Amino acid sequence: LRETLHLKSYWLVGIALSITMMTSGSINFHQIPYLIEHGLQPGQAALVITVWSIMGAAGSIFGGILAQRITMRRTMIGTLVLMALTIPLLARATTLRDGLLYALTNGLAFGSHVTFMQVIHADYFGRFHVGKIRGSFQPVQLGMNAIGPPLIGIWYDQLGSYDGVFIIFVSMFLIAAICYVFAPYPKKSLIPPKKITD
Description:
There is one protein chain. By secondary structure, this protein is mainly alpha-helical. Helices cover 78% and strands 0% of the residues. The protein has 7 helices and no strands. The chain has helices at 8-37, 42-70, 72-91, 96-117, 120-125, 130-159, 165-181. Helix 2 (42-70) crosses helix 4. The longest helix is centred in the N-terminal third of the chain and has 30 residues, at 8-37. The protein is globular.
């Protein structure tokens, strides 16, 4: 942990994860009310989220295959960009077809990304001290995840609509992607060498 604190990538990965957790938590919490408010029946909104969840499961498998080819870091960047590009689909979703298009595309990207959020520290810094390294930033990440939904709720209460909030969501995903762009893998491996035993 002491070594990682001196690495730019430690801070950028932590910031990216915190931003992603806040944004994703807000979207997950508010997407059903938003869909219902914009014309979908409750059953239709539930169907959209069901398809979104199924695509998320598929995305975790697809992302794993992709990460083996282009690295986990690049996969994280790609999924963040894809999530940013698909948020406007949710913003314009006034029919079941629109909602399903969002579910198919965003769900795939989200499923891939959320899977790697659990292991990105091990990919960057090795597995030997991953508990301390990952845990050191968890309070910030979980705090951001907790504060996102009520902040968007306050936005809605004050303005009476979700208009404009999707621009923030897109921007946050892109900022997180940029963090990974400038977060190179450490040159020195933090995994200790194997001990030679008799």
